[in-house]
Design a protein that fits this description.
The protein is α/β, with parallel strands linked by helices. It has one domain (4-83). 38% of the residues lie in helices and 17% in strands. It has three helices and five strands; from the N terminus they run E-H-E-H-E-E-E-H. The chain has helices at residues 14-17, 30-43, 69-83; strands at residues 4-5, 23-27, 48-51, 53-54, 64-65. A three-stranded parallel β-sheet has the order 1-2-3, covered by helices on one side. The chain has a two-stranded parallel sheet with strand order 4-5. Strand 2 (23-27), helix 2 (30-43) and strand 3 form a beta-alpha-beta unit. The longest helix is centred in the last third of the chain and has 15 residues, at 69-83. It is globular, with a radius of gyration of 12 Å.
């Protein structure tokens, strides 16, 4: 059985999720991606993460806007290559 983390994740709580969840569904900002990457690297593992994109441009919803997605995904890819983040 695999556990997935679904829901809002605060950066300071990343240490509690990395390595325990098979997949994190809620990475909505670069700071969180960097923290997850750092925690995964220090644990010597690869953490699977989905980037959250707010395609409806609803201000009450979390996630990056569609037009910011290419920038966000490029920075995330750099994290993945340098810090074992997937």
């Amino acid at each position: 059985m695999e556990w997935h983390f679904i829901g809002a994740l605060q950066t300071n709580k990343a240490k509690l999720v990395v390595g325990r969840a098979a997949l994190i569904h809620t990475c909505d900002r670069i700071a969180l991606a960097q923290e997850l990457s750092k925690r995964a690297q220090s644990a010597g593992l690869t953490q699977r993460v989905l980037l959250e994109v707010n395609v409806g441009r609803e201000p009450q919803k979390a996630g990056r806007s569609r037009r910011m997605f290419p920038h966000c995904s490029k920075r995330s890819a750099r994290c993945r290559r340098s810090r074992r983040w997937a």
